[in-house]
Amino acid sequence: MKQYEATIGLETHVMQHTQTKMFCGCLRVYGADPNTHICPVCVGYPGAMPVLNRKAIELCCKAGMLLGCSINRLSRWDRKNYFYPDMAKNYQITQADDPLCLGGQLEVDVEGVKKVFDIERIHQEENAAKNIHAAGASLVDYNRAGTALMEIVSTPCMHSAEDALAYMTTIKQIMQYGGISACDQEKGEMRSDVNISVRPVGQQELGSKVEIKNMNSFAFIKEAIEYEIDRQIKVLEQGGTIDQETRGYDAERGETFVQRTKEDAHDYRYFPEPDLLPLSLTDEEIEAWRSELPELPAQRRVRYVEELGLPAYDASVLTADKAVSDWFEAVLQHSSNAKPVSNFMMGEMQRLLAEKEISIEACKITPEALAKLVDLIDEGVISNSVGKQVFETLFDEGGTPEAVIEAKGLAQVSDDSALEQWADEAIAQNPKPVEEYKAGNPASINFLMGQVMKASRGKANPGAVMQLLKQKLDG
Hints:
By secondary structure, the chain is an alpha+beta fold. Helix content is 39%, strand content 20%.
């Protein structure tokens, strides 16, 4: 039986964070009432002239630099002609032959294996409107029409759903760290067209390509790729051929479906945009933008390991989301206890964020408060278990750890007389672990330790308790 391999290429659309649209002065606003941020340019009135948004050009070039692309000093604009309700003027302004960015490479971690994927190009274009399919009718909201959109095109260099997922995750992180886009997929700020073909192992020529359009969920992209690879292999094994076509993905049924026969580039009748001059960039502009590039997640991971002494796993988790990583950085402005801070961020913080389904910006605890909490634990004012209780209160209500500790009477007890009373009671009431300890089983002291902590309601200083118990049992 023949063995088959899949080849995957991605066209990833990223909506840039500009204040206004790509070719007009309309504000880019998410969630506004339909058709309230439109003008003659973005709805395609005859005679309306586009004006270039320079901020979008800057963001596209910075994205290219972050992905290792070369920046074209001269790029051109083209019209991509097609008839569809989401493009009122019946063409999209894009870049066909001379894009802003060419080449590039992306190093990603695919389930613990380092891989490098090639990027063919990044071009700037305008977004389409949003079609809303209601009962018995289709409506169009042009608020999104004309917003700045760039398309990151990979070469056909991936071979599995895991490859594609790692590639897109890394793209998303870099766009967030670079300030290019938040890549909020629920808002349509990042979506991908997935090109998939299958061929027998050893065959040089690629198989017929199928494109799955407008995927905005990583989970659905993974499902769609796995389904489509299996579908194509089954067709070939049965002696059939793969048609070049565009397919959609039905998430409920877990399968792809035919939308239309795939168009080639000539079907769009690209021709130069007559209303926009070619875009010329100077070396000074490009170098000024390059000097503003931020630290990337990969660089930050290395710094966390080498300078902060964090395990590689911690560094990976803490840099996965820029907002979380920036919050962690803010805590370290007030505390040098990087590992305990990391433990809270990866433990209690992630748990509560997931439970309450909110972002880190929405929680009420401040970086300063977490820094102080960690320092109080380090100083022995409270135990780590009590610290978790204090953290949860701060997460929900805000305030300072000192105020929470005082209000709830959670301060750790180190008073010798109180500790001695609890230790004597634990020893008197639990003769069996005492005998086991004296018979050579040192682990038995942990039970006595637990009894003291229980009696003190977690307030006893664990270090002082352990020292006291050993003194009494070894004496």
